[in-house]
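Write out a record, focusing on structure:
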Amino acid sequence: GKQGNYTEEVIGTTGPAWTFATDLYSYDDTYTVQLQPNDEIYIFWRLTFTTGSPTIFIFLEDYIVSSVPANLVSNITITADTLYPDTSLTMMLKHEAFARVSESITDKKDVFRSTYYGRTNSQPHSYAADGEGSIRGISPGKLIRNFPAASNHIYASFADLFKTAQAIDGVGMGIEMIDGKQYIVVEKLNHFFNSTRSVQIPYVRDIEKVVLEKYYYNELECGYDKWGDEAVGNLDEFNARREYTLPISEVKNKLVLKSPYPASSYLVEQVRRDSYFKSNTKDNKFDNDNFIFQLKRDGLGYRVEHTEDYEVITNVISPETLINARLSPMRNLLRNGAYIRSGLFHELISRLSWLLGKPIQKCRAGYQGRIMGPYYPCSARSRYR
């Protein structure tokens, strides 16, 4: 090992005397040790012979490989709960992302409006109050890995931004004339419903009603396209993909509300620990993926929303490190409730039937008196924060 000060700790002691040549001895134990950064740990057996032979040291690995008969199995398992220093992250908030992409598409400045994503200090247009979805930001994998922001920019398409907004917030998009100028507008769906009567036609006969089957769904897929599948700890991840069946059998349509931007706590942590400072030439398959974060105002800046902002979080391994609980598939589903419920007018007391969840979906999180688990009645699927 490296030169330095080594401390020897006894994990356990042996039992009765035994003969090395003919006897087999079994030893099982569990030991916990706290390590500091750059600490090294070595595990060995010290075998003491009572026949007068000198004390010798044999590394466990050498003993397992060279001395244990082939028909026996020996192993050592080391597990660790690790901590990683906090990192600062460059990101773009949702209003600014939409505004910048809209400018790029139209080649015009200040052409985006959204009270839902706008803030009192949003750019290039500010609003009287922070919108319900305004304190959210996006950042690519490279910036999460702390690559220099000056040479690693945030790239986004309007399609992916809007798909993420639809999947998480249940918004719509339109072109509106405001004060004589056209704007791209993204708001909740009820913003685009105009209840004003435009014309009244009396005494109409032979009215034919047509069912718009494309707005009725018997299946629903929601959540996220990516969540770091097959990685350690990801069975605990709830910001993944879910599938449900709806209480309609006459049509065969699937409603897909999946975000292309991941919100997985575990995936963010895996990418974050693959730091630029460890290797500035190594790539990561999520380098160019934009991640979405639920934020909270912190003085003049923002921080990622954590457990302390919730009344209760259960059924996850490490609730104290959980992020994006507000962006869970169930909460996203509820924010899309008005759209889903429009085809379930006669089924409002029914529940969605859970078909598939990847990986597990048992997390329960409480915020402002609302505790969300994996199920919720259709009658409650309306406007939700």
Q: What stands out?
A: Residues 55-68, 374-385 have pLDDT under 50 and may be disordered.
